[in-house]
Amino acid sequence: MLKLIKTRLTLGLVTLAGVIFPTLAYAQDKLSSGDTAWMLTATALVLFMTIPGLSLFYAGMVRSKNVLSVLMQCFAITALVTVLWVVYGYSIAFGGPGAYWGGLSKMFLKGVTVNSMSGTIPETVFMVFQMTFAIITPALIVGAFAERMKFSAMLIFMAVWLTVVYAPITHWVWGEGGWLGSRGILDFAGGTVVHINAGIAGLVAAIVMGKRKGYPTTAMPPHNLGYTIIGASMLWVGWFGFNAGSELAADGTAGMAMAVTQIATAMAAIAWMFSEWLIHGKPSVLGIASGAVAGLVAITPASGSVGPMGALAIGAAAGVGCLLASTKLKRAMGYDDALDVFGVHAVGGIIGAMLTGVFCATSLGGAGFGGNITSIGGQLGVQFTGVMVTLIYSGSATWVILKVIDSIIGLRVSEDAETEGLDLAEHDERGYIL
Fold first, then answer.
1. What's the pLDDT tens digit per position in 308-328?
2. Exposure winner among 45, 73, 158, 430, fewest CB in 10 A?
3. Can you tell me whether residue 396 is helix, strand or coil?
4. Which residues is 121 bridged to in the sheet?
């Protein structure tokens, strides 16, 4: 009886506080200003990854006559995806419970208001944070078909791909009731959702589009590796928002995610650099930058569930594995993935996703929500399922989308336009001084 009286008294005081100080009661009950401040910062960091980070990373690797086309594509994708995410993308991914999609209940951000919450942060912040992921994922694909796709075809492809590939897979993994998430897949910040998804789409696009004119007999060196290393540096910094921000809180798991992101990235950069040094006799700027991105990719799915030693192993595997995929595998298969989207993002994502299933175990230094897993074999099976589903669905859907667009308006610029360069042919501008 005494306990009941105390309970009722406590509830009465809380209610009274809410009446007298409604804003204070709301903040104490739901909103964390610390979490919100961190997520506002993380959101800006992830947007910074695409513009200008990825834009410069890619622009430095193409030939000078195509630099503006790549910058334009990344910038236009940022604007296009923002609008589509508001209209229906967010709803498909996070609109409500469901195994395969979130429905259309949040079209045009219906119900997303100043007071709506997502955990301890405003839903508006969560929505924009996820929007930045939706922006960078299709932007990654640009590197695979660089220097040869029509700008109009690119816009249509990205709009359809976001709708039928990215948004549904996002719901499968991260959405309420998503079937892969319900099976226990560990994808903290987007190994499957972002990197394997974009990487396999890039490979399919490169194959469907065909090789660039003159490839591989004509030399096509990067026109400005200064842009590339600056872009890679921006990606490295921005990735802390990508990984540590995916905790959606300013807590210990976010701190560990930041630590393992730095560790894996550094290890992968070193592993790629020394491997290239052994193979070719000299280390390259492009190599160490690519290695760093490979490490960032690989630690992405694992960043909330592995410890520092796991991060070292994942980084080393990614540095060597992505180097081999971007050189030997690429030459063996004969495809023209211009900026190695498949070799870095798909292969790096696969390495990271599978090794997450190994190093998440407590006995191997697992941290965060993966620390309770003791059956490595069982988790590997779940990770493998997620990898294969993403490869098959994204690859197949991308092929269909590209084929349909090609049959309607055509995908590729003319040979004359390709020779002239897309800067002039598609945008009537020049990105360099004669």
1. 999 999 999 999 999 999 999
2. 430
3. helix
4. 118
The two three-digit tokens of residue 322, written as one number: 């992505």
| Strand extents, DSSP E, 299-354 | none
3-state secondary structure of 232: helix
Q: Amino acid identity, residue 428?
A: D
Main-chain phi, psi angles of 293, to 5 degrees? -65, -40
**434 domain residue, yes or no:** no
DSSP 150: -
CB-CB contact of 371 with 359 (8 Å): no
Give yes or no for a contact between 196 and 117, defined as CB atoms under 8 angstroms apart.
no
Q: 74 and 23, same structural domain? A: no
Are 21 and 163 found together in one domain?
no
d(CA 369, CA 304): 7
- What is the C-alpha to C-alpha distance for residues 110 and 126, in angstroms, rounded to an integer? 15
Residue 232 lies in a domain: yes
Task: List the Cα angle 428/429/434 in 5-degree steps.
Answer: 125
Alpha carbon distance 392, 323 (integer Å): 24
Residue 341 falls within a domain, yes or no?
yes
- Report the C-alpha gap between 74 and 198 in whole angstroms: 14
**212 and 278 share a domain?**
yes
- Classify 183 as helix, strand or coil: coil
> Is residue 174 a part of any domain in this protein?
yes
CB 183 within 8 A of CB 388: no
Same-domain check for residues 65 and 45: yes
Residues 138 and 161: beta-carbon distance below 8 Å: yes
Tokens read off for 82: 């923002």
Do 23 and 37 belong to one domain? no
pLDDT at 4 over 50: no
pTM attached to this predicted model: 0.91
Place of tokens 């407590």: 362
Q: Which of 192, 186, 216, 172 is nearest to 335 (CA)?
A: 216
Closest of 111, 80, 79, 77 to residue 94, by C-alpha = 111
Which DSSP symbol is given to 362? G
- 5 lies in the same domain as 49: no
Q: How much is the pLDDT for 30?
A: 82
Query: Structural domain tally of the chain?
Result: 2
- For residue 10, the enclosing domain spans 1-30
